[in-house]
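Thread: "does anyone have the structure for this chain?"

Original post by V.I.:
We have the sequence but no experimental structure in hand. Need at least a predicted one for the grant figures.
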Amino acid sequence: MLSQRVKNTIQWVIVIALGLFLLWVTTRHLTDEEVSRVKQLFLSAKWMWVVPCIGALILSHYIRALRWKMLIDPLGVRPRVHNVFLSVLIGYFLNLLLPRLGEVMKCTFLNRYEKAPVDKLIGTIVTERVIDLASLVVVIFLTILLQLKMVSGYAQEIWLNISSDGNNTLNLLFIGTAFLVGTWIFFRLFTQGTHPILIRIKRILKGLQEGMLSVRNVRNKGLFIAYTALIWFLYLTSIRLAFFSLEEVDVLSWAPALTVLTFGSFAMIATQGGIGAYQLAVQKTLGLYGIQEVPGLAMGWLLWSTQTVFLLVAGPVSILLMLLLNRKRKSTSIS
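Reply from O.Q.:
Generated one for you, tokens below.
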């Protein structure tokens, strides 16, 4: 049986290979002159607009830290805001290196300096992911609602392709039935099993459940919802501000930025750090609004580079700051 380290390495190699393949897809139709033009547009961008773009991202991460703290507080732990904020930045940074590594490590860092139980913290992370998924569904709905004419044709075409193919329907029925049967078998084994490993898993899941249910005990649910909306609005704002950095794209308004946010969110999940997938998603999305491939690809690279370089710098700095700030506090308390 393969060790977990080998599995992680294989997964990382596959994801990176997929990202490199998608990078090739974005440029395979371009001539050498067009590739040079992409580089020229990228390097000659109005970088002064990147500063407020990064500012919006930093503020979104800070608001995310405040929202996460609202989930942690009901667990009986009162972490300091700066430690939560730095943990969030560390998590995003480590996610660039290995899938889901950041989710575990930011809980580990917070546990080290705030003595918060890791299993319960992971439960709050699961809750955050469910909330983010629901938020993404809302963003998709808004994208469709605000641009119904543009997306209705694509949706109708996809539906006709699925409904006209009987094999697709049978496959969906088979997969659904197999999933229900498998879930029932697993539930029976899990609830009635007395093996030590099963007992340990149940104990861990209980901690996860407590963390996930912490959202019920959030004191100010209205503020929690406001934080969630503000996080996504800041994501949208960062994209809208980035449009001003390229003359060929600065004519676009908030609606195209919303569409980029939608497809860009899926792209960031598809490959490690969104490499390849994000550039392709932005390029194709902007094409729907009449932006040519070359400036569309340049904007994709600019958006991706802004987010990635920021995290590559902020991650190590946050690790260092977390060490120094907590060491200083410890030495102060001893004296």
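V.I.: this helps a lot. The chain has a mean pLDDT of 79.
O.Q.: and Residues 33-329 form one domain.
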